[in-house]
Amino acid sequence: MNADEKTKKQLVKKAVGMIAPGTMLREAIDHIIRAGTGGLLTIGNADNVLKVSNGGVELYCKADPQKIYELSKMDGAVILSDDVNQILRANVHLVPDSNLYTGETGMRHRTAERVAKQTKALIVSISQRRNTVTLFIDSAKYVLNNTRQILSKSNQALQTLEKYKKRLDQVASNLSALEYEDLVTLLDAIIVLQRSLMVEKIALEIEQYICELGVEGRLIQMQLDELMANVSEESLVLIKDYQAVKDNGRVIKERLLELTNEEMLDLLNIAKVLGYDGGVNILNRQLHPHGFRVLRKIPRLPYSVIDKIVNEFGDLQSILKASGQDLDKVDGVGKARAD
């Protein structure tokens, strides 16, 4: 995923959060949908929007759902401030550059897309016939789903997440046993990392649903938080244990999460990001973990101390064989932890 795509996703996520259930703007949009009148709302970058507009009524009044709904009954657009707390103008005729490409067919949606591209404002287009809500921001487009549909998708995704998490726990437990016996291969480590990344990708999808659900997504958020406890940290220390490149672990993890689902199914792709090149035989290579995963499970042992222990001894087996006196010499360990 390149920088532009990341920026688009962030813009869309922020926009979806602004009109999620429970927000003032969503209440206004629901009124407009129920009335079947349709509407066009512009949010933010008011100076740029006014440059491509004609006429309208200047208001500069406090925004509330009822006012936005009533003003949307008029033919023109309603211009709102960046924080959606003020209605700046209503019944505005938007006249964007007609040379800007648009793939939309309806006049309202065509205007919305062009204005979004030209002004970088968030444009909310509410269809009169189909009762759909479409967001346009810069060159990004997002069609809001029905709340019931999102809840259904969220529950399905949670069920999938539970299954993947259960499998992740199994392979992670198996890896821990192999680490203590010093029998780990690259394949063993990558299988756990692959499962962990898949779990995190599913979680990211659910987070998007939660963002769109607003107040309706509280219970789903609680379930997600419970299922994802420590998963992100576990994958990070796993990477630090087995990476063959000197890059920061978080940077490596970002690269791994950028892999598509299809690419992630090929274990060699994950191995390559970790710094292991070669054919299928490379997966049988025996590895010696540094010990980050095992040390992280020790209660109240700070990451700074874990780094010092690993730097001192190099790998897990050396740490396991170290005497209490040797461990006590490491700054921050102390006699109680060493014993």
Terminal CA distance: 47 Å
**CATH T-level topology of the largest domain:** YojJ-like (1
Number of helical runs?
17
**Beta strands, count:** 8
For the record, what CATH class of the largest domain applies?
Alpha Beta
CA-based gyration radius: 27 Å
**Strand percentage, roughly?**
5-15%
SSE ordering: HHEHEEHEEHEEEHHHHHHHHHHHH
InterPro entries: DisA, DisA_sf, DNA_integrity_DisA_N_sf, DNA_integrity_scan_DisA_link, DNA_integrity_scan_DisA_N, RuvA_2-like
Organism: marine sediment metagenome
GO molecular function, one term: ATP binding
Catalytic activity: 2 ATP = 3',3'-c-di-AMP + 2 diphosphate
Account of the protein in words:
- With 339 residues, the chain is α+β, with helices and mostly antiparallel strands.
- It is built from 17 helices and eight strands.
- It folds into two domains: 142 residues, DNA integrity scanning protein, DisA, N-terminal domain (YojJ-like (1, 3-Layer(aba) Sandwich); 142 residues, Ferritin (Up-down Bundle), CATH 1.20.1260.110.
- The radius of gyration is 27 Å and the shape is elongated.
Task: Write a short abstract of this structure.
The protein has 339 residues and is an alpha+beta fold.
SSE topology sketch:
Layout: H1 3-18, H2 24-35, E1 39-43, H3 46-51, E2 53-54, E3 57-62, H4 65-72, E4 77-80, E5 86-94, H5 107-119, E6 122-126, E7 133-137, E8 140-143, H6 147-181, H7 186-213, H8 218-227, H9 231-242, H10 249-257, H11 261-265, H12 267-274, H13 292-296, H14 303-313, H15 316-321, H16 324-328, H17 334-338
Parallel strand pairs: 1-4
Antiparallel strand pairs: 1-6, 2-5, 3-5, 4-5, 6-7, 7-8
Helix pairs in contact: 2-4, 6-7, 6-8, 7-8, 7-9, 9-10
InterPro entries: DisA, DisA_sf, DNA_integrity_DisA_N_sf, DNA_integrity_scan_DisA_link, DNA_integrity_scan_DisA_N, RuvA_2-like
GO molecular function, one term: diadenylate cyclase activity
Pfam family, one: DisA-linker
